[in-house]
Specification:
The protein has about 160 residues and is α+β, with helices and mostly antiparallel strands. It has helices at about 15-25, 35-40, 95-110, 125-130, and strands at about 1-5, 50-55, 60-70, 80-90, 115-120, 135-140, 145-155.
């Protein structure tokens, strides 16, 4: 597995956008695949905010992705920047893809001078993130979901 910038693999944008809408659409019920794809295409720079990282298998197929965003939801703008939209294809789960994407995203944020990075997740994922060095920061309600905002310190280089 290797982790590269989505901007260098535009052929995966549409499939990734569809996966994101399916996985995260409950938070944004009017969100379309076309809107998700446009957002992903706007992540056109490496080592910048916003950007998206893509985990790829040896054949160049995508396994998962994660984004680094300035803002992840209009109701929680007081926290910034964000690790967002961590997604691993079902057939690639349990193989360390998510952990590798999170670690790379945190390292990229640190290389950009970010001191603290945030994410939000459902309560079921708190322990998974805690095991990777994240801590609980706040509980918030976003639409129909009660979520946990978590934070981690960024250090080092990507």
């Amino acid at each position: 597995m290797r982790i590269e910038w989505l901007r260098d693999h535009p052929r995966h944008v549409d499939a990734l956008a569809a996966a994101h809408v399916e996985a995260f659409g409950r938070l944004l019920p009017d969100w379309t695949v076309a809107q998700a794809a446009a957002e992903l295409r706007s992540h056109s720079q490496a080592r910048a905010i916003p950007t998206t990282l893509l985990a790829l298998d040896d054949a160049g197929g995508w396994l998962g992705s994660v984004s680094l965003l300035q803002e992840d939801h209009q109701d929680i703008r007081q926290y910034s920047p964000w690790l967002a939209s961590l997604y691993v294809r079902p057939e690639a789960r349990g193989q360390g893809v998510g952990a590798a994407l999170v670690a790379r995203c945190v390292a990229e944020a640190g290389a950009l001078g970010v001191r603290q990075l945030y994410l939000y997740c459902t309560p079921a994922l708190v322990d998974w993130y805690r095991a990777r060095g994240w801590r609980e920061h706040a509980q918030v309600t976003l639409g129909p979901l009660h979520v946990q905002v978590m934070a981690t310190e960024c250090t080092g280089e990507a």
